[in-house]
Write a structure and sequence with these properties.
2 copies of one chain form a homodimer.
Chain A lengths: L5 E10 L3 H13 L4 E4 L13 E2 L1 H9 L3 H7 L1 E3 L1 E7 L5 E8 L11 E3 L2 H14 L4 E2 L2 E8 L3 H5 L6 E7 L5 H4 E11 L6 H6 L3 E15 L1 E3 L7 E6 L2 E7 L5 E7 L1 H4 L14 H12 L4 E3 L5 E12 L3 E2 L3 E3 L5 E2 L7 H20 L9 H26 L13 H16 L32 E4 L5 E3 L10 E8 L7 H12 L4 H4 L11 E7 L22 E3 L12 H5 L7 E5 L5 E6 L3 H9 L5 H4 L1
Parallel strand pairs in A: 1-2, 1-11, 2-8, 5-14, 11-20, 24-25, 25-26
Antiparallel strand pairs in A: 3-7, 4-7, 5-6, 9-10, 10-11, 12-16, 12-18, 13-17, 14-15, 15-16, 18-21, 19-20, 22-23, 22-26, 24-27, 27-28
Helix pairs in contact in A: 1-4, 1-10, 10-11, 11-12
């Protein structure tokens, strides 16, 4: 390496600016206080094609960064799914239409189809507000992790050394750079250079299912061209996804022998073109016709691999995320969702550790939480892809997949596919010891959406909007009813406890006098907007007038109310609900067990005011 | 005038860039096809103070220009109103809280408090997208209207001559300009130069009520500081309006003798300051305290005038709008709302006439509709201001205003104050002949909000969002149920009629083959999303797949449905609902009376393809 090589230091280096890398970069930038850099070897971002679907939970996650609204406007919302099967007269016919999302608690009860580029733009614009831009075209050449245990354990050290090459450099001396990073995130796709450089293997197999994909504006008489349509025909399976504006995407099942080169065992795209894929689609779609109204926007052919990386991290200093650690079929629309949710899970942990809030031990939960999910995803995908790609049951094929079988799988899969069913297992940050005090706020699952009204101004607010992904823990205090004088003693006692320098709210702050910046507090009272005086809530429970909510309907009587009952929380005692920065319930506990809440935080937070 | 004076020609010249002028400029710019200019004599726009409240109907109107969303985010939503009255122990106490909006059909069931400047910014940004910017500081010096009747009647003439002075001109030759305009709108405030130049008088009186206004961030123990609060005390009346962020506005009743200069009869601001106004407020607010946390942001003192201009137009070539034609008390929060709704009413009419779509006779309806409203507003204001400014009824003042009296007025006034109760009387564009075919869509009132689902993709849509203020008439065709074969003959017959060159849809287009650009068509079928095939709707009723709606619930079953019944429309026949470009129902008619619909349009639209 020439002497002139530049050297630099960074808290976090992200390799790859696809959905996983951008989610990570934006999340860390929003959290603040972390020196982060994101590189990509492509000279510019993609514009068409690629991933296309956001699941309900992913929309909730994007909204926690303030990014969902513009995507909801731009994208195509999929509310219903139409199922087509072989008809008696040949060809296909509509069997049924059903809601595409069966998960009742979804805040956004639909899928959103939208080109990957629009989603990337939302991140890029948000990052720009925080002065973070993708550095491109820049390629990593070498990565080296220190083997010195002391070095690895030290919070102030930069144990990862990455050599970067700037691909558009005009002078050799500008080309190379050595970056010393505290943490590296490899979000560099299915062929991840980071993964390979670290020697992490992928476990699993290539399947025999081969698919063609075509994006276009169609001319058709197919009645469900604007719904998601799952078509099982005697001539193969077809999935239709309506896209933004008048576009649609077709996923067309192709025959292995037509597509796979027998010599290499790989998909050979050379003999194919979109018109040939459409020819296959037309056979499945008979008696309906379909043709492009204008040029085909994008197309591809691929074989499904179903694999999970053997590990997601090395020494909790280098992580891989997204397609770099799991590949699966696109039929369930999970790809981009799983990827973004990987780094949504990881980013706040890195941010808290870099800022000195949390102990590095929380980083272990990234692999335990996300690799478990990735394996479940592959298992799910195997079952689902088999059903979808299988031949339909007809009078002459009694072994085929019946509509009832497929529809049952569709329904039971709904919770998993939507992302809402996801439940992280017990860990240092997931403690279900007191689950019974809030039976329906499942510890490890995302906080349920619910409308409350603000006590001071009766404005209805969605609790999710008070849980932004800003790397802070949210302490929701369900104070219960304040109508009975008898309860005030209990409430005041807790106020004193939390207001003391040893209470968990102030224990982690620099001075012990104010609440720690890593906590945000919301208070929910079982009271009525017509009567309740928000000033009666002790000061420690109302850091701002907007933080006191009532479990009541809004002024129209149409929104809100019933949360205590819905959540299974008693209104005659005080209950804590601890929501992690990523929106998942970390712990629920009665105020009488505040010692356990203290222990929960003690197990992974750093006592800043003691150590400084 | 020197020889060098510039001369220019413009379709519409707007004088004044306050809310009325900006609404006008933006509406005409959005409509397109009109050469419009807007001037203001102030060198820059206001930044603090002034008007502060948007009523529910005004929010709907702003949303029809796509402008409500950002204001809803920025503003303070007022959902509840708190009423305080003298207590037994001296001072005041909470009597009741009630929903601030009693109008059940409001799409946005709250008031929005926000500084006028934010609302002006929304218009200014939107106008910029259409390449229209406020030309300032520019002042009109003379205005002259041609007296030549032929000139006044000709569509191609520019009968208004206005001399403008550029106030920041550095060279004399750049200073003056003569503008020849087809139409001039004077939106230049209560002291309107345009009004005075035209010799239009104001009818009505000055009242004896004097008010002080203070904007600040308060330190207070008053429990309703974030609600709208109407306070009647023995020491005078007080109104609190919570503003954006933590700010509030106080409207404080002052004593006439303390404020009005006996020599001039005018309000004298010189002896006053915000602390003196606050001293008065504190007496009304006892036993609660209030003080500014930081500097006072803005303050003023004024006496209420209740006046309406004797006419709103001269020759339907020059119009006045907003404060230029009506002044009243701010207590009912109508000022900015009335002003913006004036030009919302006027702009589309001017745009249609300039584009050659409509006959100039529709311009007459501006005065007939808006002057009637202004007079109603003053009548309302007189009753309401008397009640609000009057002494409260107490044991030692039995003649005072009781809470019950005030609250009853508050409730009955709700529909008027919200702007939703407004009903325009019969005219060339308001025809109630067939009201009975859609009993609850009152002709002359704004179209009711209602959620439908799109037939093609089951996406729930609010009908208001399909009725943008784009200067086009919206034809909503309620086709009824299509399940019975027997109805298809009727539907197909109407399709043929509307598809013919003499049907009203095509009659006004250039070629008679396509629909006129001045119409937008929406079709609503009484059908179910699980079964209905949107392709079964005849082509003339579905200009795009997104225009066919179902009166059904969405996939969650939580939104939509029941519109036929709610509107009082029969699902066994076809019903037309004609919505004016400003969102008001112009006519309802059964398809069997399509001749009357033809006549409705013939009475004010221009037959372009015949005359060209």
């Amino acid at each position: 390496m020439p002497l002139q090589t530049r050297e630099s230091f960074v808290d976090v280096l992200i390799v790859g600016a696809g959905p996983a890398g951008l989610m990570c970069g934006n999340a860390i930038a929003v959290a603040g206080g972390v020196n982060v850099r994101i590189i990509d070897q492509r000279p510019s971002k993609i514009s068409v094609g690629h991933a296309d679907g956001l699941q309900p939970r992913t929309i909730e996650v994007l909204q926690s960064y303030g990014l969902a609204e513009r995507l909801l406007r731009e994208g195509s919302q999929l509310h219903m799914c139409a199922f087509y099967n072989p008809s008696q007269t040949g060809g296909i016919e509509l069997t049924a239409r059903a809601p595409d999302i069966s998960e009742r608690t979804a805040r956004f009860p639909f899928k959103l189809a939208l080109y990957q580029s629009a989603i990337e733009d939302a991140f890029i614009d948000s990052m720009a507000h925080h002065n973070l831009r993708v550095d491109r075209p820049v390629k990593p050449l070498t990565i080296e992790l220190s083997r010195d245990q002391e070095h690895l354990r030290s919070l102030s050290s930069y144990p990862v050394k990455v050599t970067l090459a700037r691909l558009d450099a005009t002078i050799d001396t500008e080309k190379l750079e050595v970056v010393h990073a505290k943490y590296v995130v490899g979000a560099d796709g299915a062929h991840s250079w980071v993964r390979k450089a670290l020697g992490i293997t992928m476990d699993g197999d290539q399947t025999n299912y081969v698919w063609g994909v075509v994006d276009m504006v169609p001319d058709t008489n197919f009645p469900d061209i604007r719904n998601r349509a799952a078509i099982h025909s005697k001539n193969g399976s077809l999935m239709i996804i309506p896209r933004e504006h008048d576009k649609v995407r077709l996923y067309v099942q192709l025959s292995e022998k037509d597509v796979v080169d027998p010599e290499t065992g790989r998909v050979s795209k050379t003999k194919w073109n979109p018109e040939k894929i459409l020819e296959v689609a037309r056979k499945s779609l008979h008696p309906f016709y379909i043709s492009p109204l204008a040029d085909i926007e994008w197309w591809t052919i691929y074989m499904i691999g179903q694999r999970v990386a053997s590990r997601f991290s090395v020494e909790d200093r280098v992580f891989i995320a997204g397609d770099a650690c799991h590949t699966h079929s696109p039929k369930a629309g999970q790809g981009m969702n799983a990827s973004m949710n990987d780094t949504h899970n990881l980013a706040w942990k890195i941010a808290q550790v870099v800022r000195g809030w949390a102990d590095p031990s929380i980083l272990r939960t990234y692999e335990s939480e996300r690799r478990k999910y990735a394996k479940d995803l592959i298992d799910f995908d195997k079952r689902y892809a088999t059903l979808f790609s299988g031949k339909p049951r007809t009078s002459d094929n009694q072994d085929g997949v019946s509509h009832e079988e497929f529809f049952k799988a569709f329904e039971t899969a709904g919770s998993f596919m939507s992302g809402i069913g996801l439940r992280y297992g017990p860990s240092v940050i997931v403690n279900a010891k007191h689950q019974s005090c809030a039976e329906n706020l499942i510890v490890g699952q995302r906080m349920l959406p619910q409308v409350f009204v603000r006590a001071a101004d009766a404005r209805p607010v969605e609790i999710h909007d008070l849980l932004p992904a800003d790397a802070r823990f949210k302490i929701i205090v369900f104070l219960g009813s304040m109508e009975e004088e008898s309860r005030l003693a209990e409430i005041n006692a807790l106020a004193n406890e939390l207001g003391s320098p040893t209470g968990f709210l102030r224990r982690y702050s620099m001075d012990g006098q104010t609440s720690s910046p890593m906590f945000d507090l919301i208070t929910i009272v079982a009271g009525k907007k017509e009567k309740f005086n928000y000033l009666s809530v002790p000061l420690v429970f109302r850091p701002h007038w907007s933080k006191v909510l009532l479990d009541d309907t809004d002024a129209t009587g149409r929104k809100g109310g019933g949360a205590y009952e819905r959540f299974g929380i008693c209104s005659n005692s005080i209950t804590f609900v601890i929501v992690r920065p990523d929106g998942y319930v970390g712990m629920v506990a009665p105020a009488t067990a505040s010692r356990d809440v203290n222990e929960y935080f003690t197990s992974f937070l750093t006592l800043r005011h003691c150590s400084s």
